[in-house]
Amino acid sequence: MQILDNNCCTCGQLEAALSEVMTRFHREVIGRGPDQVTASLKGCTLVIHLKGVLTTAEKHLVVADGQASEGIEMVRAMRNEIVRQVRPLILEALAATIGHRSTSFFHDFVPASNEEVFVVIFTPGRGVPPRPE
């Protein structure tokens, strides 16, 4: 099954738009955008890989005195809680961009490597209803 069932844009254009959605989410919710975002759409599976996602404060918590610290777990827990709370907003923005609802959502955040990954599975045919004006 494929998501791209119309002639509105290329896969590359859609991946760029999805990358922008996640960059905007990071700026608005986390306080800074990631250094790098890569979105890959294969069939009904979207993988978004973000690099350079830590804020300055989080970087200090992750590495104390040049060594990994217990701050890693604190930063991971905080980021996971933020994503849990704004998950509906993320999925709404992605669905509006791709034109299909998601069926599954996975997230992992690795403070030590300064990376974050989102995996979203979409179901073709379950279109997104238009938003009321």
Walk me through this protein's architecture.
This protein has helices at residues 11-30, 56-62, 71-98, and strands spanning 36-42, 45-51, 63-64, 67-68, 100-110, 115-127. The chain is α+β, with helices and mostly antiparallel strands and 133 residues long. It has one domain. The strands form 2 sheets. It has a 4-stranded antiparallel beta sheet, covered by helices on one side. Helix 1 (11-30) crosses helix 3. Residues 1-7 and 128-133 have low confidence and may be disordered.
Element layout with pairings:
Elements: H1 11-30, E1 36-42, E2 45-51, H2 56-62, E3 63-64, E4 67-68, H3 71-98, E5 100-110, E6 115-127
Antiparallel strand pairs: 1-2, 2-6, 3-4, 5-6
Helix pairs in contact: 1-3, 2-3
